[in-house]
Amino acid sequence: MKKLFAGIDSSTQSTKLLVIDLDHQETVFLDSVNYDRDLPHYRTQNGVAKGLGEGVSESDPRMWLEALEILFQRLKDTDIEMSAIRAISVSGQQHGLVTLDESGELTRDRSKLWNDFSTEEECQLMTEAVGGVDEMIKEVGNSQRTGYTAAKIFHMARHEPKAFEKTSTCFLVHNYINWYLTGGVNGGVRVMEPGDTSGMALWNPKTREWSERLLNAIHPTLKSKLPPIKPSDQSIGVIGNHWVEEYGFSSDCLIDAGCGDNMYGAIGTGNVEPGLVTVSLGTSGTAFTVLDEAYIDPDGEIAAFCDSTGRHFPLLCVSNLANGYNAVLDQYDIDHNEFINSVDAVPAGNAGRLLIPWYMGERTPDVPLASPVYFGFNLGDFGRENLCRAVLEGHIQNLYDGFRKMPVQAQEIRVTGGLAQSRAWIQTIADIFETTAVPVRGEGAAMGAALHAAWVYLKEKETALSLSELVGPFIDLEQEKQCNPIPKNVEIYRLQKALYRALNERVRGIQTAEDPFTLRAEIIDMTRS
């Protein structure tokens, strides 16, 4: 009998379902539901409920469940044998808060999402309550950011006390979907796992304990509302009767613990051993790796998470990435090929011109009121070619400047996301990060979830395989697009990295020994030689 495994990726804008055939090492099903297009009755834009006000980003959790029902019906309508699916794993957008009462009803109709920025006051109050940023990092391994779940819970406790009082369970997105898959109101399993839990900023990924000080500062009853934490590399139960009767799943189909989308994005790009780094180029930019030991950034800028295998998962996130690229395309009414032609017309280093691309508030470094900074531009320099080169280099320098704090020497960078198909972006990453960079085809998080489901099933039911052995055949590296560092560019970008760091710090009022004007002159000399 076939051994099929399903991965679900419940993201901000869509839900994807991917099914792999382990024996034949192939994907046999891939489909998605776009919330805006396919579920218009929820009235979302980019997956977010409309009309909620500035800084507020929320969605109805029932939308994610309805999307899942649609996808399972589409799968059932194919010739794929539903009963051959041995295990399912869920990848969920991180940090979103879903609250249930004892009977399983929502106590709040909408979930605050990862990109909700309405809880800045709560972040400040929590930080003050534990004695400042340094104490907060000791407590939970992270500073408090509006994206994390702690502030969302505190916001609910402060502004919606009756709903908070009715709440018996505080879930993250993938935990909620797991509960639904294991039975929902008819006995669904209420548990969490270390990977996604570490992104709540309530639980310390190094000590693996809840912060009693912070929990009590938010509300004395909060701890009782948090489900038990079970290992990430185990199943939490079997699929509920509804799915067996309605869609034909086997009653012994396992539901894996699941994890956050970044953790499964790592697996889906083959990043399962220390030394590999994944860079995701989307609206925001992320860089992450796997470590055997926890890394706690003393400044709280590198997120300290656990992964989905029992290891640790430092993650850098910058808010600004594709937004600057999209803006310059719109500014000049050009397509990607014209952008590349403009970039190629200007040598690496842009003759000392540099952009700090903070087009919106930046997360790393933490500059919520940020604006872009243009350095080294004469009045005649604001043409398309110089600005395209500045956007490309500025965004990657912004990403690298945060990444340099990570305790990892990258052996290879796997690049995913919308811009991963661009030669210019891949080459510039290789040059600035000074290592090989290669794009990865496919659906990273959904594939990672399916592979994790197979890994857990084999460990529990058959013969265990190492995750790297299991993952290898499913990772589709675009070797023909691989880029290696160009030595001359590396020399120029080392100076540009110092220049970026000096400007970044001076703009934020941090005195630095490096003189930006001297560094600019050195770059100009080097690009002329």
Structure description:
The protein has 529 residues and is of the alpha+beta class. It folds into 2 domains: 4-257, Nucleotidyltransferase, domain 5 (2-Layer Sandwich), CATH 3.30.420.40; 272-444 and 477-529, ATPase, nucleotide binding domain (Nucleotidyltransferase, domain 5, 2-Layer Sandwich), CATH 3.30.420.40. The protein has 19 helices and 24 strands. Strand 2 and strand 3 form a beta hairpin. Helix 14 (384-403) packs across helix 18. The chain is globular, with a radius of gyration of 23 Å.
In terms of topology, how is this protein built?
Blueprint: E1 4-10, E2 14-21, E3 26-34, H1 35-38, E4 44-45, E5 48-49, E6 58-59, H2 61-76, E7 85-92, E8 98-100, E9 111-112, H3 120-130, H4 133-140, H5 149-159, H6 161-166, E10 169-171, H7 173-181, H8 194-197, E11 203-204, E12 209-210, H9 212-218, E13 235-238, H10 241-247, E14 254-256, E15 259-260, H11 261-268, E16 276-281, E17 285-289, E18 303-306, E19 312-318, H12 322-332, H13 336-344, E20 354-356, E21 373-375, H14 384-403, E22 412-416, H15 423-433, E23 437-441, H16 444-461, H17 467-471, E24 476-477, H18 487-507, H19 516-528
Parallel strand pairs: 1-7, 7-14, 7-15, 16-22, 22-23
Antiparallel strand pairs: 1-2, 2-3, 4-5, 6-9, 8-10, 11-12, 13-14, 16-17, 17-19, 18-19, 20-21, 23-24
Helix pairs in contact: 3-4, 3-5, 11-16, 12-14, 13-14, 14-15, 14-18, 18-19
